[in-house]
Amino acid sequence: MDIDRLDHLVLTVEDIATTCAFYTKVLGMKEITFSGGQAGGQTGVRKALAFGNQKINLYEYGNEIDPKAAFPLPGSADLCFITKVPLSEAIEHIRSCGVNILEGPVTRTGAAGSIVSIYLRDPDKNLIEVSNYIDA
Length: 136
Known about the structure:
- Helix content is 15%, strand content 46%.
- By secondary structure, it is mainly beta.
- The chain has a single domain (8-133), classed as 2,3-Dihydroxybiphenyl 1,2-Dioxygenase, domain 1, CATH 3.10.180.10.
- The strands form two sheets. A four-stranded mixed β-sheet has the order 1-4-3-2, with helices on one face. A four-stranded mixed β-sheet has the order 5-8-7-6, with helices on one face.
- A hairpin with a 2-residue loop joins strand 6 (103-110) and strand 7.
- The two termini are 30 Å apart.
Protein backbone atom coordinates (compact mmCIF):
# COMPACT_ATOMS: atom_id res chain seq x y z
CA MET A 1 0.00 0.00 0.00
CA ASP A 2 1.25 3.47 -0.86
CA ILE A 3 -1.09 6.29 0.21
CA ASP A 4 -0.66 9.35 -2.01
CA ARG A 5 -2.75 12.11 -0.39
CA LEU A 6 -5.81 12.99 1.64
CA ASP A 7 -8.87 13.41 -0.57
CA HIS A 8 -11.44 14.52 2.00
CA LEU A 9 -12.31 14.33 5.65
CA VAL A 10 -15.62 14.65 7.46
CA LEU A 11 -16.53 17.14 10.16
CA THR A 12 -19.57 16.56 12.31
CA VAL A 13 -21.06 19.96 13.13
CA GLU A 14 -24.00 21.42 15.02
CA ASP A 15 -25.18 23.62 12.16
CA ILE A 16 -24.07 23.19 8.54
CA ALA A 17 -25.04 26.73 7.45
CA THR A 18 -23.06 28.30 10.32
CA THR A 19 -20.06 26.12 9.52
CA CYS A 20 -20.21 26.99 5.81
CA ALA A 21 -20.45 30.70 6.61
CA PHE A 22 -17.36 30.55 8.84
CA TYR A 23 -15.16 28.49 6.53
CA THR A 24 -16.07 30.52 3.43
CA LYS A 25 -15.74 33.95 5.05
CA VAL A 26 -12.82 33.39 7.42
CA LEU A 27 -10.79 30.74 5.56
CA GLY A 28 -11.82 31.44 1.97
CA MET A 29 -13.07 27.94 1.21
CA LYS A 30 -15.77 27.29 -1.35
CA GLU A 31 -19.12 25.85 -0.27
CA ILE A 32 -20.21 23.07 -2.59
CA THR A 33 -23.39 21.05 -2.82
CA PHE A 34 -23.43 17.46 -3.99
CA SER A 35 -25.69 14.42 -3.80
CA GLY A 36 -24.98 11.08 -2.30
CA GLY A 37 -25.29 9.01 0.79
CA GLN A 38 -28.24 8.80 3.11
CA ALA A 39 -28.93 10.98 6.09
CA GLY A 40 -31.89 10.21 8.29
CA GLY A 41 -32.94 7.48 5.86
CA GLN A 42 -33.28 9.88 2.92
CA THR A 43 -30.97 10.18 -0.05
CA GLY A 44 -30.32 13.82 -0.61
CA VAL A 45 -28.20 16.86 -1.00
CA ARG A 46 -25.02 17.25 1.01
CA LYS A 47 -22.64 20.11 1.72
CA ALA A 48 -18.86 20.28 1.65
CA LEU A 49 -16.12 22.88 1.83
CA ALA A 50 -13.60 22.79 -1.02
CA PHE A 51 -10.03 24.10 -1.02
CA GLY A 52 -7.17 23.15 -3.33
CA ASN A 53 -7.74 19.53 -4.40
CA GLN A 54 -9.40 18.55 -1.13
CA LYS A 55 -12.72 18.94 0.58
CA ILE A 56 -14.34 18.69 3.97
CA ASN A 57 -17.66 16.88 3.91
CA LEU A 58 -20.12 18.01 6.56
CA TYR A 59 -22.42 15.89 8.70
CA GLU A 60 -25.00 17.45 10.96
CA TYR A 61 -24.69 16.05 14.47
CA GLY A 62 -27.33 13.36 15.02
CA ASN A 63 -27.96 13.04 11.29
CA GLU A 64 -24.73 11.38 10.13
CA ILE A 65 -24.46 8.98 7.21
CA ASP A 66 -23.33 5.37 7.69
CA PRO A 67 -20.67 4.25 7.81
CA LYS A 68 -19.34 6.94 10.11
CA ALA A 69 -16.79 7.46 12.86
CA ALA A 70 -17.51 5.52 16.03
CA PHE A 71 -18.08 8.70 18.06
CA PRO A 72 -18.81 11.63 15.71
CA LEU A 73 -18.94 14.79 17.80
CA PRO A 74 -18.77 18.50 17.02
CA GLY A 75 -15.61 20.13 18.34
CA SER A 76 -13.37 17.07 18.30
CA ALA A 77 -11.16 18.00 15.31
CA ASP A 78 -7.74 19.61 15.24
CA LEU A 79 -6.93 20.72 11.67
CA CYS A 80 -3.96 22.50 10.11
CA PHE A 81 -4.34 24.44 6.85
CA ILE A 82 -1.46 25.87 4.83
CA THR A 83 -2.08 29.27 3.26
CA LYS A 84 -0.13 30.95 0.47
CA VAL A 85 -1.08 34.33 1.93
CA PRO A 86 1.57 35.76 4.29
CA LEU A 87 0.58 34.96 7.85
CA SER A 88 0.50 38.67 8.76
CA GLU A 89 -2.25 39.17 6.13
CA ALA A 90 -4.10 36.08 7.34
CA ILE A 91 -4.03 37.43 10.90
CA GLU A 92 -5.40 40.78 9.77
CA HIS A 93 -8.19 39.10 7.79
CA ILE A 94 -9.15 36.71 10.61
CA ARG A 95 -9.32 39.57 13.10
CA SER A 96 -11.38 41.67 10.66
CA CYS A 97 -13.91 38.80 10.64
CA GLY A 98 -14.23 39.15 14.42
CA VAL A 99 -12.48 35.86 15.14
CA ASN A 100 -10.12 35.61 18.10
CA ILE A 101 -6.62 34.23 17.56
CA LEU A 102 -5.83 31.92 20.47
CA GLU A 103 -2.08 31.63 19.96
CA GLY A 104 0.66 32.55 17.56
CA PRO A 105 2.49 33.13 15.47
CA VAL A 106 4.52 30.19 16.74
CA THR A 107 6.94 27.80 15.03
CA ARG A 108 5.75 24.21 14.59
CA THR A 109 6.62 21.19 12.47
CA GLY A 110 4.42 20.51 9.44
CA ALA A 111 4.33 17.45 7.19
CA ALA A 112 7.04 18.86 4.90
CA GLY A 113 9.13 21.00 7.26
CA SER A 114 8.99 23.95 9.63
CA ILE A 115 5.87 26.12 9.68
CA VAL A 116 4.77 29.29 11.43
CA SER A 117 1.23 28.94 12.78
CA ILE A 118 -1.67 30.72 14.38
CA TYR A 119 -4.57 29.02 16.16
CA LEU A 120 -8.28 29.81 16.27
CA ARG A 121 -11.56 27.98 16.81
CA ASP A 122 -14.44 27.40 14.41
CA PRO A 123 -18.10 27.69 15.53
CA ASP A 124 -18.05 24.11 16.88
CA LYS A 125 -14.84 24.78 18.86
CA ASN A 126 -12.66 22.66 16.56
CA LEU A 127 -9.05 23.82 16.77
CA ILE A 128 -7.95 25.39 13.49
CA GLU A 129 -4.28 26.01 12.73
CA VAL A 130 -3.39 28.31 9.82
CA SER A 131 0.23 28.16 8.72
CA ASN A 132 2.96 29.19 6.31
CA TYR A 133 5.97 27.02 5.53
CA ILE A 134 9.11 28.85 6.63
CA ASP A 135 11.18 27.94 3.55
CA ALA A 136 8.38 28.56 1.01
